[in-house]
Amino acid sequence: MKSFSLIPLIDCARMGQALGEAEAKLAQLNIHHLIDAVLTVDSDIFVFGAQFVLRSPNNENRDEVLVYTADRLENEPGVQLTRGAFLLISLLVNGDYDPSVPNVGIVLAHQLAKCEYGEDLLHPL
C-alpha cells in the first residue's frame, strides 16, 4: 500500500452546501475535475459517478486510507463494476433509499450487474 499525506490547501479551499445528497454533489464536482477526490465512507458515491474516492478502512485509525478509482473498479477482473452496475446493485440490495428486493442479496445483485443490466438504467430508451 502506498503512503501519502493529505495537505489542506487553505488558501484555495472553497466551501459549499449540498442540498439533499452530498455524495451526488461531490461526485459531480469530481466528474468535472473541480475536486480531485472524495473522502467518504458511503458507497453511494459510485452510484453518482465519482471517479476517485478515498475511504478509511478502519474508523479507529484514520491514518490509513484506501484509494478507489472508477476505472479500476470497472476493469478489475472479478469486480467489473460500472456506474450502471452500482446503480442496479443499489436498487436490488437494501440501501439508503429503498428496501431490498426479496431474496436478492449482494452476490446475486453483483452477478446481475456484471451482465450489464444496469447500463440500461443509465441510458433509457
Q: How would you describe this structure in keywords?
A:
mainly alpha; disordered N terminus; 8% strand; DNA polymerase, domain 1; 36% helix; 125 residues
The geometry reads as: globular
Q: Please, what is the average pLDDT?
A: 81
Strand content: 5-15%
How many domains? The number is 2
Structure in words:
- The chain has 125 residues and is mainly alpha-helical.
- The chain folds into 2 domains: 21-75, no CATH class; 76-125, DNA polymerase, domain 1 (Orthogonal Bundle).
- The protein has helices at residues 22-31, 44-47, 70-75, 83-92, 106-114, 117-122, and strands at residues 38-39, 52-55, 66-69.
- The protein has a 3-stranded mixed sheet.
- The longest helix has 10 residues, at 22-31.
- The N and C termini lie far apart (43 Å).
- Residues 1-7 have low confidence and may be disordered.
Question: What topology does this entry show?
Answer:
Layout (H helix, E strand, L loop, with lengths): L21 H10 L6 E2 L4 H4 L4 E4 L10 E4 H6 L7 H10 L13 H9 L2 H6 L3
Parallel strand pairs: 1-2
Antiparallel strand pairs: 2-3
Helix pairs in contact: 4-5
In short:
The protein has six helices and three strands. By secondary structure, the chain is mostly helical. It has two domains: 55 residues, no CATH class; 50 residues, DNA polymerase, domain 1, CATH 1.10.150.
